[in-house]
Amino acid sequence: QVQLVESGGGLVQPGGSLRLSCAASGIMFSIYTMRWYRQAPGEQREMVALITSGGSTNYLNSVKGRFTISRDNAKNTVYLQMNSLKPEDTAIYYCNVVVMKDYWGQGTQVTVSS
């Protein structure tokens, strides 16, 4: 059974940093593209970043240069390093993998506020 467990969210001041982690189980992690999404209150869920099995990355325009996605295949974990955080980054952040269908973690809350 596929399971994704996110961690690392919290409250941070504008300009601060957080690192999110997503531990995956039940899949051959190294062969799958992993994605981070976020959903702010009243907004649709949007993809923030992805990393392919080969390590190629892609980012939402508004986070380019501030966020970095990475993966550790030995630990079956994908990370999202978030720097220079802004209030508009406030959202629940979800890890995602597609294995015949979408699988989602439970989400981790990120709040950027002074």
Q: What structural class should be given to the helix and strand makeup? A: mainly beta
The end-to-end span amounts to 40 Å
Q: Radius of gyration over alpha carbons? A: 13 Å
Largest sheet: 7 strands, mixed
Q: What's the order of the H and E elements? A: EEEEEEEEEEE
| Apparent shape | globular
Number of helices: 0
User: What does the average pLDDT come to?
Assistant: 97
Beta-strand content: over 45%
Could you outline the blueprint of secondary structure elements for this entry?
Blueprint: E1 3-7, E2 10-12, E3 18-25, E4 34-39, E5 46-51, E6 57-59, E7 67-72, E8 77-82, E9 91-99, E10 101-104, E11 108-112
Short description:
A hairpin with a 6-residue loop joins strand 4 (34-39) and strand 5 (46-51).
Plain-language structure description:
- By secondary structure, this protein is mainly beta.
- 0% of the residues lie in helices and 54% in strands.
- The protein contains no helices and eleven strands.
- The chain has strands at residues 3-7, 10-12, 18-25, 34-39, 46-51, 57-59, 67-72, 77-82, 91-99, 101-104, 108-112.
- Strands 2, 4, 5, 6, 9, 10 and 11 form a seven-stranded mixed sheet that branches. Strands 1-3-8-7 form a four-stranded antiparallel sheet, with no helix packed on it.
- Strand 7 (67-72) and strand 8 (77-82) form a beta hairpin.
- The chain is globular and about 40 Å long.
- The termini are far apart.
- The model has no long low-confidence stretch (mean pLDDT 97).
